[in-house]
Target: DUF4254 domain-containing protein
Amino acid sequence: MNFTETAWKVFNQSIEDYHVFDDVNSLINNPFEKDSLERILYAKNWIDTVQWHLEDIIRDENIDPVEALQLKRTIDSSNQKRTDLVEFIDSWFLTKFEKITPKPDAKINTETPAWAVDRLSILALKVYHMSLEANRESASEEHRANCQAKLDVLLTQKEDLSTSIDQLLTDIEYGNVKMKVYKQMKMYNDDSLNPILYQKGQQK
Model:
């Protein structure tokens, strides 16, 4: 089983596990061994899955404004955790390939392996939920047909993205691509970088 096959299997296990209770407050129960790549991937997708449903909830037109504000802050926190974990996955790959010497003409990819994996995790969620809609008995036949067409596209994207990730990892392993990691350096959660936050601090 290659990397993306393993990742896709882990992502779908996380999604299935979440939907046992389908509750954004459910606590993660990671079934994989400590320090294993599978454990990291499961944790990554769990964050994505919870955030997917938080995004659904906050779009309720009748939501209480106070609850919406709290949800927005929860989503911001989740985004930061997601970013931190993606960067941790990149660190895992950097360690894996630390003894590889890139060739003199090695290329630099537009995104790191972990950010490509991030897209694969989100894609797993899209496939899961689009499949539900394509088979929802309470929906119209037209709705199900439209969702099946979208699902077919998503599954093609899954095959293409999986191939691209596996090719990227192979290219890094053989020195054809130089792996470089740039931190996202998100500013909105940082009291010293978000002007709305640090200006309030100066006014006290």
Remarks:
- Residues 3-203 form one domain.
- The chain has a mean pLDDT of 93.
- The beta strands are 107-108, 177-178.
